[in-house]
Amino acid sequence: MIQVTLEIPEAIEQDARSIAQQTQRELPAVLQEWLERYAAQIPLDSLSDERVLALSQMQMPDEQQARLSHLLGGQREGMLTPDEKLELDHLLTIYRQGMVRKAEALKIAVQRGLRPALG
């Protein structure tokens, strides 16, 4: 990972700080997530073979996966706060979007002959 300094509009900074506070995360993590979401909208067929292969093998980061598991456990026990419910919804959205992106990348990797077809 590289570090980049950006100038962003004050309104974006305020929105990001609000979300960071609600989800108990740091501002840079929220901004990074937004950039990742934007990057996830780039058509996969325009990406390099190397990037398509990487996306076809991606997994949720360990920290997010652990938090998701913790929140799911809390949900089963009916012990989530309203903020934790929002965080859980947020993490589930990230997980679902990641799975869709991974499946699309796998399809393209197979089409390009980078990976064998499943089954």
Write the layout of secondary structure elements.
Elements: H1 10-23, H2 27-39, H3 49-56, H4 62-76, H5 82-111
Question: Could you characterize what this model shows?
Answer:
The protein has two domains: 7-39, no CATH class; 45-114. It starts with 9 loop residues before the first helix and ends in an 8-residue tail after the last helix. It is an all-alpha fold and 119 residues long. The chain is flat and about 45 Å long. The protein has helices at residues 10-23, 27-39, 49-56, 62-76, 82-111.
Q: Portion of residues in helices?
A: 55-70%
| Domain unit count | 2
Output the structural class: mainly alpha
Multimeric organization: single chain
Concise overview:
With 119 residues, this protein is mainly α. The chain is 67% helix and 0% strand.
Key terms:
single chain; 119 residues; mainly alpha; 2 domains; 5 helices; 0% strand
